[in-house]
Amino acid sequence: MARGYYTPIVALFTATLIISNICATKGVQFFTDHSVQLGPLEILPISTDGAWFLFPLAYILGDVLSEIYGFRSARRAIYYGFGVLLLTVVCFKIAIELPAATFYENQDAFRTVIGTTPQLVAAGLAGYFVGEMLNSATLVLIKERTKEKHLWARLIGSTVVGEFGDTLIFCSIAATAIGIDSWSQFVNYVIVGFLWKTLAEIIVLPITYRVIGWLKKNEPTYAPTEVPALQS
Predict the structure, then answer these.
(1) Between helices 151-174 and 56-97, what is the axis angle to 10°?
(2) Which of 52, 76, 162, 216 falls between 20 and 30 A from 205, CA-CA?
(3) Whole-model pTM?
(4) pLDDT for 6-57, tens place per residue?
(5) CB of 48 within 8 A of CB of 196?
(6) Would you list the DSSP string of 3-70?
(7) pLDDT averaged over every residue in the chain
(8) Measured distance CA(45)–CA(37) in Å, rounded
């Protein structure tokens, strides 16, 4: 059983997921005064959601968990996150359906902010679960070959695989629920989402390096292992 810093990292990981799912209910656009297209791909304006600045942190923390504690411990954290997200959705649904007090005037706004369709819930949960599992498995498999060397390859490689799986599955399930009704729009949605999430993690790579380096020195349970990657 992992000890040391595992619990606070999992707590931050789970909190990031919950906050991201709430912030994501807001649509956001940048560079709305510009229009740039590359074939069917719309470059500007950039359309995203209110969690764009936070959600990549979940994958960064997933990388840290996989690198320091191994696949089993990272998988356990993914299960925790999945369970908490599911509980959050259920609680939100119950809170929305509870009869509003006569003095409460924000029922519609409350429903709009934390309410979501079953299709979007399924998309978010499926994308998160598959993406995080791919991210963790890819990182530990690369580490099995590179050992303690080439951390950058593990971080970038796992990000590319995990984020692509997450984005593709989420967009495939959620597309019709958010109004995407053509292949060109779908391709744009997948590519822009994937590129942004991957770029965000690459930008903060120096910070991830420092966090992992510090944990390797200070985490009492950390030690390089010869156990097969997906069993560690």
Answers:
(1) 30
(2) 76
(3) 0.82
(4) 999 999 999 998 888 788 777 788 888 988 887 767 778 877 778 888 888 8
(5) yes
(6) -TTHHHHHHHHHHHHHHHHHHTTSEEEE-TT--EEETTEEEESEEEETTTTTTHHHHHHHHHHHHHHH
(7) 84
(8) 9
